[in-house]
Predict the structure of 2-alkenal reductase.
Amino acid sequence: MQSTSSNASPLVQFSESLAQIVEQVGRGVVAVHGRRRIPSSGVVWRQGVVVTAAHTLRRDEGIEVTLHDGRTVGATLAGRDAGTDIAVLRLANIDLTPPAVGDARSLKAGHFVLAVARGDDAASHADSGVIGSVGGPWRTWRGGQLDAFVRLDGGLHPGFSGAALADMRGEVVGICTSALARGVGMLIPRATIDRVTEELLTRGRVARPYLGVGTQPVSLSESWVTKMQLASNRGLLVNSLAPDGPAERARVLIGDVLVEIAGDPCGGFDELHAALASAAIGQPMKVALIRGGERVECTITLGERPQRNGCR
């Protein structure tokens, strides 16, 4: 005798509900062919617009996407933002319905979620897990701002960067990425995607100020701390300069140690990013450096960060 849905075990009902979520969300998930070998995934975010993980696109032209019905169509890159790892693609004359969306801020550690991707075989692929940890707004190591910190409980399978992450309501709360934290998957929240997508569609880029320096944290000797009355024994060693960048034009040198920015101590990347986040392109910013054992001050006029540049 076959069991009916009314007397099926809770596990069978739960399994069926997961399959329904994957099927429902999967209609709005595409495979993105923007690199060699394994495609990444993307999500239909609005009519004619797909969002994906920027780090998976190895080219700006010749990008294609495979839809849920098996069709493969061309896509145009509207823009990418390395800071938040978001890229936006345009699809011409393609009628697709975006999946229902939810709020990543409703997630809690331990919540069960589903990642829905699309593979090279045009089929939906799914992975399940729990939310590892959550927090408030988070600045990435690339200088972008995520509206919420949501860490998944492990790494992502190949092709799952750009995949939709759905809660148990079947609502997409964002897309997955493996590029913002080492060894674990992270969520790019819906609110961040909405904000960055609008700017990329309008301007083609996200404009952020930068100094034009590559740095690494260093410890300062107690004699330097005492001599210069520093608030911290930490600083940022300048180990590279963007050619003709803001810092180089202000005569900053490789080997200088950045200890203050805009009048506040700068002992690490968080302080540097916080100062730049509240600044504007073209704004003069006073910095204090240690050079040859002496304190040196200069003013750097902030420039616009190039889209592909490792300097801050």
